[in-house]
Amino acid sequence: MRPHDVVTMGRVGVDLYPTRSGVGLEDVETFTKSVGGSATNVAIAAAVHGRRAGVITRVGDDPFGRFIARELGRFGVDVSQVAALPGEQTPLTFCEIYPPDDFPLYFYRRPKAPDLQIEPHELDAKVIRDARIFWATVTGLSAEPSRSAHHAAWDARGRAPLTVLDLDYRAMFWSSRAEASQAVAQALPNVTVAIGNAEECEVAVGETDPYRAADALLARGVQLAVVKRGPLGVLGRTAEETVEVPAHPVDVVNGLGAGDGFGGALCHALLEGWSLQRSLRFANAAGAIVAGRRECSTAMPSTAEVEAIMSGGSHE
Amino acid sequence: MRPHDVVTMGRVGVDLYPTRSGVGLEDVETFTKSVGGSATNVAIAAAVHGRRAGVITRVGDDPFGRFIARELGRFGVDVSQVAALPGEQTPLTFCEIYPPDDFPLYFYRRPKAPDLQIEPHELDAKVIRDARIFWATVTGLSAEPSRSAHHAAWDARGRAPLTVLDLDYRAMFWSSRAEASQAVAQALPNVTVAIGNAEECEVAVGETDPYRAADALLARGVQLAVVKRGPLGVLGRTAEETVEVPAHPVDVVNGLGAGDGFGGALCHALLEGWSLQRSLRFANAAGAIVAGRRECSTAMPSTAEVEAIMSGGSHE
């Protein structure tokens, strides 16, 4: 079997998103369903760029779990590492949509989501080792046995190039911020790329200033640090260079999933071997397209769509 | 404060029902939200008949919990005994709609729904004692502290007339059928009316034959046993009389909630002091109206609607 371009590991669920914006869940009458979860969305975004992508995750043994497997197949994402856990329920995510910048999430993942029940011995080390990019998220470290499984995956990976940690931090998944900081500190020596926003960098390395945060991430051993600064654009830093690209202008409809669109596009760009400058511009534009659309997984743009808006075209 | 006509105690949640029938959740794209939960639906149904109704239950500390409180208020149901539990999530219920007789339910109530966390000491004994009807369900016995709270409520009630137990049995809420049977056996001596279908009667008293089931319930001390027989109608039996009424003909759209519509209407009929024959005919017709509509809580008919179809009119 040909190795994957991108293998992600982590969260999956069904997104139930309101058909109305600007109101609380109290007032939403209708919800539409789609596949969600950050690690899963990144795999989908990479697949939409034509990349051979797979996701390592777990769903419930229920109709929503079957829906996820089917949808991933429709997107061309390999589901050979997706299993349904007997007796478990597929998690749900509701959101409220208050553009431009407030998108509260309500997770139904109790007592422990299937995607946090991945056991180390269940992993296919060859799939993880051979993937050109291996992408994991901090949320995957928030509970055992998933945390141990992530470390087992990194052991298999052996710090190969393009071992990415998305610093993805959501307070509700942790008993304390300090617990998350400690988990990230244990994870960083195993990865070569780290990506996060200001708050996530603070959890990871105690710095919110983007330059200091990037330096701190490099000091922990990563080769590429990417700091997402929202309306201020994005900063990429390696030992050799520092690149800053401005935010791509967008009328935000729903900011959720924009970071995953950014991530999947960055995977594509890195695999293409583009310069850091071009890679970050491409990823930024992809994220802007997703932010301009209501949905997440079904909003991931093709390479042509991203290139069209980079050359000044409209993105709708 | 004027006593309630009907006080119910038990399950509440948000129903997320598909806008399409005849397909699995995999294929449903859109869901609509409404208040649900059997005990809550019975209170709503009674309120729609003009009865002063209240429900004793608990919701999550979230937008869905606020929605429930607001909707109950809109229906005229007293929410003074409804509290939001900090840190808890309001449960969700999905269904699939395969008319005429298959309506699978998918509950998000883990690890323990707020409505099963009612503590005995939190009850207002006066409200329970003074209510003309006190209605509880077997589901409320499926976990502690709710089970103890139900027994505390029955202690306050002192086996006053119209202390109703809905034999409502859903296998997923119990570790075994035997555990449910034992809980019902402990409950029956405390109530004066028991209502259930054939399977529920089997769990309660080990009988599926409607006449033997009714007799067994009477032998356990209830004064009125009501056995719902689906297309075969309903049987009511007391020490003095046996009444059988045929099913009200209906093109079933969604059978869920029909039993609660039946229950709320039966409460109204019993409070009116109607004969058992007239009461069961009225409740049957109300249930048929709900079965002919897609939703549950928002489908409960008014007294005039029920009387219209009893006199031969259409119910839509």
Automatic annotation (TrEMBL), chains A, B:
This is 5-dehydro-2-deoxygluconokinase. It comes from the Bacteria. InterPro entries: Myo_inos_IolC (IPR030830), Myo_inos_IolC-like_sf (IPR023314), PfkB_Carbo_kinase (IPR050306), PfkB_dom (IPR011611), Ribokinase-like (IPR029056). It comes from Microbacterium elymi. One of its GO terms (molecular function) is 5-dehydro-2-deoxygluconokinase activity. Its EC number is 2.7.1.92. Residues 5-301 form the Carbohydrate kinase PfkB domain. Gene3D superfamilies: 3.40.1190.20, putative 5-dehydro-2- deoxygluconokinase. Pfam families: PfkB. Belongs to the carbohydrate kinase PfkB family. The keyword tRNA processing does not apply. Keywords: ATP-binding, Kinase, Nucleotide-binding, Transferase. The keyword Membrane does not apply. The gene is iolC.
